Amino acid sequence: MDQTVRKGNASPNNVEPVPVSNDVYSALRGVVDPELGGNVVDLGMVTSVDIDPDGRVEIGLALTIAQCPMRGYLEGETSRKIAALPGVSEVLVRTTAMTREQRANLMSGARLRARENAHRTRVHPTTRVVAISSGKGGVGKSTVAVNLAVALAGKAFSVGLLDADIWGFSIPRMLGSDERLSADDDTRLITPADVQGIKVVSTGLIIDKEETALMWRGLMLSKALEQFLNEVEWGMLDYLVIDMPPGTGDIQMALARLLPQAEMVVVTTPQIAAQKVAVRVADMARRSHMPIIGVIENMSSFVCDHGEEYPLFGAGGGAELASTLSVPLLAQIPLDPAVVTGGDEGAPVTTDRPETPAAMEFDRAAKRLLELLPPVNEENCTGRIAKLLEQLAVSEPVASPSSTGVTSH
């Protein structure tokens, strides 16, 4: 739908030279959409600029929807900015509604800018942030998050574990912790619980009883995540594993905005129906410019005592999802009663029963993750130079004092 607004600030007998296209676009960069946080030029909302010799300027402005609440504001700001240019006799703003493709491109650009301009949190920029995500509940996402964090910590890395499943917290039980979170008297920052060598934060470590229901709505969930990222003294971590809630809601969008370095691992079961749901969370990640590291297939099969394998939840879902997303399949975790027992008793199978097939697959996933996402301090330029110098010192013979002219003391 088209609607025009006319503004004038000069007489028809305008003697000043009319502005050129660059002048108009420069002025339009001062028109900011307060909802999207960007100017109308960079957001791709300016569809046309036409300048007549008599100083009449016509602007084409595409809005996200025809009944955009900010329509009057954007039209007025556009007219005012252009009318203030020397040589402009009249301004005509013609508004249209964006196509679906234009709207998708605009939102993608807005998300990218939000990530690039994210405020610093207390998670250090060099910390590798791994969001363990799923399209729906019941696929063992929390089990994967706990065992992956334990496996990484077992390889001498500094690891944090954030339970971002605010409603459905389960990390404290899976790690066997009932420690309460506390704040430092001097800094007023929350101190993470130290559980099995991992820095852990969860709403389950705040409430009085595990059975207490948290009846929080979307905004409160996002604020809780912000508090966990901004008011927790995480320190220097190599990896921060985040157990995400299932689906594509407020927490997922807040994480993409708050932690630009976050990357996603998608958990699914072998069932094709579960794989199709998992595609949605991957689609959300990519729209939010969050890289996807790989896929972990959980509950892949059950092997009985006499060695026969039973694909109780179907087969092929993890491999198909990885192929669809063009990412590696990091591991296929078999059905194992020891995993369930370990989760209930706070003894993760990765450390409590390392000889089991499930524990070995969790370890394999951790090793694959380290290959794909090595610690930042191991891949920066300074680290590489230090390694190179160390290698040279070992491989090259040390020159004798007589050959260098240096006398040892």
**Shape estimate:** elongated
Oligomer: single chain
Helix content: 25-40%
CATH architecture of the largest domain: 3-Layer(aba) Sandwich
CATH topology of the largest domain: Rossmann fold
Mean pLDDT figure: 82
Structure class: alpha/beta
Query: So how many helices?
Result: 15
| Largest β-sheet summary | 9 strands, mixed
Q: Report the β-strand fraction as a percent range.
A: 15-25%
CATH class of the largest domain: Alpha Beta
CATH superfamily grouping of the largest domain = P-loop containing nucleotide triphosphate hydrolases
User: Distance between termini?
Assistant: 87 Å
The low-pLDDT segments are 1-14, 379-388, 394-409
Rg computed from alpha carbons, rounded to a whole number of angstroms: 28 Å
Structure description:
There is one protein chain. Helices cover 38% and strands 21% of the residues. With 409 residues, the protein is α/β, with parallel strands linked by helices. The protein folds into 2 domains: 3-116, Fe-S cluster assembly (FSCA) (GMP Synthetase, Chain A, domain 3, 2-Layer Sandwich); 128-383, P-loop containing nucleotide triphosphate hydrolases (Rossmann fold, 3-Layer(aba) Sandwich). Strands 7, 8, 11, 12, 13, 14, 15, 16 and 17 form a 9-stranded mixed beta sheet that branches. Strands 1-6-5-4 form a 4-stranded mixed beta sheet, with helices on one face. The protein has a two-stranded antiparallel sheet with strand order 2-3. A hairpin with a 4-residue loop joins strand 2 and strand 3 (38-39). The N and C termini lie far apart (87 Å). Mean pLDDT is 82; it is low at 1-14, 379-388 and 394-409.
